[in-house]
Protein 1
Amino acid sequence: MRPRINRAFFLVLGVFFLFLASSLSVSAESLDTLEATLRQFQAAIENLDFSAYGLFFLPEIGQAEVGVFDSYFTDLGMDGVVVRRLPGIKERAGEHTVFFHVVFQNSYAALVETWRLSFVLKDGDWKIASREVVSRLRNLYRLKIPSDRWERVEKITIDHQDISLTFNQALVFYDNLPEIETALLIIGPGRMAFRPSDENEKHQLKLMYKTESLSSEVDHAYLRFSPSFFSRHVHLDGARPAPPISPRDLEQATAYFGRYQENFFTVENSLTRELLTVLPQGEEAVIEFRSPKLGDLTYIFSPFAEDEISLYDRTRDRFICLYSPRETDEGRPLRFFFGQPFDILHYDVEAEVDPGTFFLSAKVRVKLVSRSGGLETLRFRLNPRLNLIRILDEEGRELMFNQDRSNRMVYVPLIEPSSRETITLEFFYQGRLEPPPSHTDVLLAGQAEEPRIVVPLKFESLLYSYSALWYPSPPHEDYFTARVKLVAPAEMTCLGQGLLLEKGYSVGRKGEKSGLRQDKAYWIYESKTPLKYLAFLVGKLEFLQESRTTSGLNLELFSSQEFRLNWRGSLEEAAAILSFYEKQFGRFPYESLRIILRFWETKGGHSPGSLVILNQLPRSLASQGVGLANPASPVDLSRWPEYFLAHEIAHQWWGQAVTWRRYRDQWLSEGLAQFSTILFLKEKYGRKAYTDILRQFARWTEKKSRWGPVIMGSRLSYLDFEAFQTIIYNKSSLALNLLCELLGEDVFFKGLKEFVTVFRFRPASTRDFFQTMEKVSGTDLQAFRQSWFEKHTLPRVRLQTSTEIRAGQPFFTVKIEQLEDVFVFPLWLEWKEGTSVRREKVVVQEKNQEFSFSLKAKPRQFKADPEKILPAVFN
């Protein structure tokens, strides 16, 4: 049966579509009118046309809005406006929403606001139904020195914690902020005195300058501080108005301010492209000064940092001291520790790189979650050499940002505080970026002195890793998953982290000048396992081999195309190393492992998550001895060919799966990786190889330990790079061996597995490590930790032996006296009884101890620490 056609229904439907088409046409015309209205409204703001400004609002709110607009100038003293409209119009319930960034400013201050404007059609015209300030950046200042305030003072003194500066007959320049003291420039003869209240820091000063305190002449100082700091810590005597300033003094003050202005509390605003500063809070202060003897120094005090006091040598780019002050009779100074406000969940990266020009362009989508409720501002680290073009939020709105180039930081205020569980931002940037040497989770071999390159060589690979800051990374240690698309010239190869999902090619256009066509290739990698940071290697690389371990892990081997040394057996060796580590520390942390034999000028390696990069010397350099590990280096174990590979694979656990929280905990990466390496060498070559290595470590530790404790971390490298390698890599390995003997192997390795499990994909501290070991072992390890990780000294021990008869039974007695600091350590004692060798282990933990052993024969040839693997002095 044919269905009956309802003619009335189709008639109504046709009328509906005709009405809809008419509405869409009107809407398009209205939107064009709205665009024109928005341009006129922006012009009214910029021209400070108050009467025109009010006409854009609905009549019932226009007068009030003009009053609010006027208050920015009458009440806040602003005299200019910079406006940027955000692209896009959002329609909802008959209202059209538009966002504006508005910067109010005068000669010394700025106020940045984001406005949400709701437009409605009223009698054929677009009117603003509401204006809401959804975010506001207050207390921004346009700091300037010299201003119109300066004076000559007989004496000015700055006293704070462990530093004081005194100037006599000095010229003092004040900042340009009315009724606020936050910056001061002092030019004239002065003197600085600095005495740290921390014993380890006194020791560092003694190593650097042969004194536990610093005192030096200075010729100027620039100070940034809070107004309350000025009233408490800056003292002026005999101030008098200075005569008209000379052009020379004015030029000198301008030059000093230009040198120091950007270093602290200053950002470049993306709207105005000018420098704006914020006021330090509470006791925050920075003092920059120059000493003819010591160079350019910076004293920093921040109650918001774990190490509140730092003295930085800007001339030599190193920290002299970094610590928190000791407690006073009034108690410990108030400290502020803030948790990280957000956690990055995932990166989506599209990056194109040209190794020939070092040009990098990228689009990066970051997904993060708030840890502290509504987020208002986000911070990211990014290399200042990259031109940050724009940042978009999840709705495609362009965000304003403030860039601190000196500290390589970008601050991103959100358009409105976000209450969402997750937030997504998209970064667009480009620029010429030559990657610096990597310095995270990396083995640096000590290089032989005076290398000479006879034959010019071209190294055709670039490693973009953490130190390059090539993507917007979090300012704190964080873990995240990632999907990365890498694009490069077709003759290159890009090796990234995780699994390779896709690889392809695209035909390029002919160059306008060269007429040559440059084809491109792309690679898409995905890591579903959390990474600590993103890295990739691009260059002329070739695939060599692929295999699987017994646990099912996929292994791939690549090398530079120029590489011509024997690579066979590398994957088999890697599989053996992985199998050993998985037994000791638990399963491999990542989905796959990609090993690259990189043609490079020095030995060593780098180990980002799921990548191991081993530097391999070309034959021409190796034959000359150029770039080879120095045989006298404290970390040279190159006579065992597996050393570099085993060390870098160990970093996949120590440094990647578990990372160190701050520089004082760096041994958790390098020390545990080094110790894991020698455990593997012991497994393969036997106990003798192990003791040979520990003996080498002990000799170096005795030689270099005076440079500082293990918890001094990377700062040790400022004074003596061999000392850094010795203490962080080798002394910590010796300490771990002692801990293993103290607790027993079963308990020790159970503790390591527990540590990896608890802190997998989390930063950990030295305290965390020992608390885990204490929990597993039931042993108080505080004294052991202090002995081997927090002191730069080593045990000095006197031993006395005697034999006696007790109830007819002969006994051998060993008296042990610690002559200086008291350490905790297991000690092996050895002697001969008749024809047999007897070994006994004792635990030394007090100033004076006595141990007795029953005898079967007269003891002879007594030895303490017979294998010479304990770094100590025995009398």
Protein 2
Amino acid sequence: MKRAIILLASFWVLSFSAFSQKTGQTVRGTVIDATTGNPLLGATIIVVESNPIKGTTTNDNGEFEITGVTYGRWSFTASFIGYGSKTIQNIMVTSGKQPILKFKLEEKATTLKDVVVRAKIEKEKPLNDMAVISARSFSVEETERFAGSLGDPARMVANYAGVMPGNDSRNDIVIRGNSPMGVLWRIDGVEVPNPNHFGAQGTTGGPVSMLNSNLLTNSDFITSAFPAEYGNALSGVFDINLRSGNREKYEFTGQVGFNGFEAAIEGPIPMGKNRQKGSFIADYRYSTLQLVSNMGMNIGAGTAIPEYQDLSLIVDLPTKKAGKFKFIQLYGNSFISMGRSFSGEGSTNYNQSGYATDFGALLNVTALTHTIMLSEKTRINSSISFQRSSSNTKLDSIDLLNKTYFPWYTGSLLEDKLTASIKYKHKFNAKNNITLGASSNTYLTSFNDSVYMREYHKRIEVTNQDQRTTTLYKGYANWQHKFSDLVTLNTGIYTQFYDLNNESSVEPRIGFQWQLTQRQTISFGYGMHSQIQPRTAYFNKQYDQTTNTYSENNLNMKFTRSHHFVLGYDLLAGQDFRIKLEAYHQILYNVPVSRVTEEFSMLNYGSGFYLPSLDSLVNNGNGQNSGVELTIEKFLTKGYYGLVTISVFDSKYQGFDKKWRSTSFNTNFAANILAGYEWKIGKKSFLTLDARTVWSGGKRYTPIDLAASIAANEEKYDWTKTNDKKYSDYFRCDLRIGFKQNYGKFSQEWGLDLQNITGHKNIFNESFNTLTHEINTVYQQGFIPMMLYRLNF
């Protein structure tokens, strides 16, 4: 036994010694024109503060390679004659994976005789040059680094100003008091449905994201007055970009953590002699709790076990003359059963309120994108995509005394979506460029659900729609004019047409940015925006008991529309310190409301786990959101960073009765404080410590009518007080500890996320207990430690 241990130890030491012979990593990337995407031959890239200076130049394809970069955190600067330089900061260089960078350089609008050095705010500048207000880019590393984000981009952006936290169980993105339904998701330019496990139509969140952070590259997040390229959304845009695989070597990743057990492989695809190499990435994840349960480990009596898995495939094929093709495949399914136990902790939150739920969902996205340069100044991007989303819901009422179930609600949704899009971009000169685009989204919707109505003593249909085809057509034009390198004007027009009710919309957009001094910038944005309703809402049926017939009265619902006004001020107080202030006002109109349930408004859609079924909706509702946001940020330099965001706002709506009420998302304020420090231990190891504190107003709610609930022996609400009440303020502290090690040919990382370290009891909701006839308080997540281990080689 001792000999075996000695041999294993010797093998381990020898392996590490062999792997440790390598002391540096190769960094690859491309340099392109920010407007056209044309590769820049001869651009210079240097490793900032390297001694001696390390650097290189790009080849015919705009590609570069820097070898022997020492392990650690480095910044890289790209420059080219006639263009402004660009710095990508704080890239962690490790042994297990080669960093792949992409520089987008902007051509200077004016040619100066003397060299003038100006301070630039590059860290938050969005990738889309048309977005000059309420927009910022984020890196993949931020999704990993921010405490509490759990590698989820949606949870990460909840730390930004204007995004409201408050739901530990989901990652819904609530922007400036708007419903999460108002967020547009795009992946590599392709519009996609809710990309989360356990997601449903009409919502944009879920407990676990399908967007694997290991597959992402820098992306944009826009919270208001977005450019004309984006449409059919009321609150914001999450523009996600997927990275390409390594074209020179095979790399592998193994990981286990909150998001599941994961395995990934990437590498080159040979394309023949004298041709560019392609690349691929394949990644698979499986629910951690499901695997532990399948192995026979007892997670806890009555515990709801989330079951999910997803598969991602990215294939990138560049060609010499036919442009670049990119194939994307995202697939995920999920299922959970809640409240199916009459004893144990898992039954507390669900069946005491009288209901048990089974819910399953599926999302499949298959997309092919194509990019081709017609000339050095003209680029065309096109894409086609097939998407399938489905969900199945079973909601049973529970007799707690007899411990039996009764099928109360069942629903099944299947929707196929076929999209096609094309974008034409042309740069006339350094001052002017134009973007034109068009797309179509064809939906094939099947939705069938029914509910047992006690007053009728029978089950009635809520929706019964099979393979209903509808199409949304879109078009837009963007023009950017740079009066100088300091003053930029973006204007545009977006239009859409929905053939279900033959409604159309023409929407102007404008963005203006003026750099007053080397350190101060003011921005202004305006946009008219509109959005169709969830397809399922159009197909709700009204039941007439006297004639035993149904009618569809929502088919003529119009777009919900809004005006966005935003004014911003940026101050770069130092090379790594930034202060940003924005004020906004949003006017919403043509909002669907109900003649019968007069307090109802579609603006509150997405505040719960299901979509309310109401018929005879009319577009007579209004709403408004106003607020001020402050961001104070110290970018990651010298091993540490800090971020403080404060949002003060008011979100109101009018139902059919024209009474102003708070929306379900009107928490009135939100504050985030994040900070982190990174220590280098020796030459190859790094220790990180990140902390986050969140404080926001409590969730709005409608109180339970206790007397009516006791009389009916089921939960009843006092709708005269809709959203009048607020739970106590939401408060949470998270801590993340990470440790990275480099061993020549592979690297490994440990992470410990301590969620809600103070154990603060944040209220989730109140429910009526049909057994005790009391109102119970259901709390959100308590203190939970979560582990992460990642291996790259």
Protein 3
Amino acid sequence: MRSVTILMWAAWLLAARSGAAQAPSSITARRLPQAPSATAETPAATTPDTVFQIPRVTGPPNLETLLHNGHGSNGENGSSAVVRSAMGLAVTDFRQREPGDGTPVSRPTTAYLSYDDANLYVVFVCSDDPAKVRANIARRESISDDDQVVIFLDTFHDRKRAYFFATNPLGVQEDGIRTEGQDDDKSFDTVWSSDGTLTDSGYVVRITIPFRSLRFSRDSVQVWGVAVGRVIQRTNEEAYWPHITKRRKGFVPQFAPLPGLAQISPGRNMQVNPYSMVARAQVFDKHIPGHLEQGDQRIGTDAKMVVRDALTFDATVTPDFSQVETDDPQVTVNQRFEVQFPEKRPFFLENAGYFLTPVELFFSRRIVDPGVGLRATGKMGRWALGAIAMNDRAPVEDGDPAFGHDAWIGTFRVEREIGKESHLGVLATDREFLTSFKFDRMYSLDGRWRRGKHLTLTGQVMRSENGAHEGGRVDGWGALADVSWASRHFDYAGNYESFTPEFDAPLGFVKRVGYRQTTQAAEYTFRPDGLVTKYGPSISGSFLWDHTTSQLLDRELEGLFTVELTGHTKFRVRRIEAFELFEGVEFRPHTNRVQLGTERWKRATFDLSFSWGTAVNHDPAKGLDPALGDALEVELGATLRPTSRMKWSQTYLESTLWTIGGSEKYFTERKVREKLSYQFSRALSLRAIVDFRWDDLNTALVDEKDPRKRKWAADVILTYLVHPGTALYIGYRDEHENLAISGTDVIRSQSADMSVGRQFFFKLQYLWRF
């Protein structure tokens, strides 16, 4: 509990004074001059080896200066000096990463960089046919289908982790953190401003990033890594300055050095983010049976304090997540192992990458009902630190001896850089029940080493300690080794994992234990010019043995062929041959799968996945053995944009298993999601989701009491989001199921017309930064 005490002392330092973020003035749409090329009068940094400095300015760039004093590609009419002095350093030599590698960007593009005492500024001038530009008025962080511009900032110049700030041509924002060896962390949200407009010859975007929204060292003169990029969706084009090639492994290590940022600091950087929520609910209780009226009123707060520019302390009291969307549909029937649903709660999402290890030993969704929590994250020189302390008011389910008892959860992560692109890290997690019913502890050591341009080695060793309420203690071990080779045409990945039967990670996401496994995968990609941008085969093999007896438990061999065309059109065909030992019976299922997806059209995207073959019935009815059956899975997805403000998405999932030959059906699971969004402005949006689910299960063959389940639910939420932390949410949810009351019993009916859960909520939160 020592770490909890330290974090609580830090939280006492937080105070409250009001502040507000200021946005730049709006941009007037008009004809945009052609993006300038590098000339003697408009200097452009062209390679990551070029030492350059961006100019310090006295205020935000005035886009009217650019629009009134534009110049042609050769700097005619003598206005380039005016533009340069107003906009900052110009970089023009954007080079493709996809589909070409080093090919100049297909449309003229310039980024102007400058800074002042409080902000970093980037102005993008992008030439294009305005009728072909993809730009929609959308919710924040919903621009994946649009053209984009982006700036990456490696503020510690550690060549590992970088902020990114992206917008579409209309200034709709997306931000996040890119970390080498991890997926992009788009849960990172901070306050910054952006404006964008379409013009007669393309579009222009201005990005303003306050230094108080970043974390960096206290050096009087900073050296950062920087990259700026442009995405053109219709041509699959992804171009950057400096050139970031796929001929070597790593993205952040290829940034250009940005020295000379002098006398900058986030300054006094504290924030308080209180909220108030009122909810009313009506819930059906099967034990009464009948409906119960429930009410909830909460006042809570999140608070943040930045110490020495780089270390962040966060605190939360009575966190609330009522505005979180429902989980995306997934097949859950007849799954051999637990299905993972991603974390969506804001407090846990920010800086989540600080706690990631190759094996996911801290999965924050395991914290079911948090009450009070503290977190510290940050970077100090070559050291990165993350710590969480939080209570959980519902850590285990009914039936567990510790049910009804709170637990305190602590997580600590420290990482040390070695060389330029390698590191060693330690993770420790602890869950202690207040009544000493049990404890769960985890210790892990991991490392990542870069060798040359293409090779990466990763390793991890883990130890678990679990104490039961009877006084017993069980220790378990786990290990992982991974090697990967990445280049423009050839990729290889080899993996080995081992977990003893005693290994247990209740705060992590480890699907199974008691095995040894190796996986090998290789892919070769051809990259022609023209309609087809890339194609090629890949193969993989996975073998899993019992940890104690070394008996083969599972084997999977896969062959895949992929073709990708312009317009992000993909076609994939794969074949999977497997071996599975389940409850002492050997099975050899196989799967054929065809996938097709396209974003060729500006207003519509489509995806189709169709699988057929055989699969195992893992939940046989009592008295029956598991058996192999004929399997079919279909997944359809479509997104339509009738206007630039409206988005309509549909998802359909179906999974069916028959006996061999199709004489009888084991089960069919179907899920449908309809999602409609309308954006009145960049801040105001309305979103509605309707989910349908209906299951048909043969209780003579499947272990299930209810043969026919019907459910549907509707979610509606009105959001007014000024910026992250300042928002108003008004929401309503209604769930229905095919139930009926017969006397004192609850029975299944034909249609889902009984409301089993209904909720209305109102939530207001406001961010003070001072």
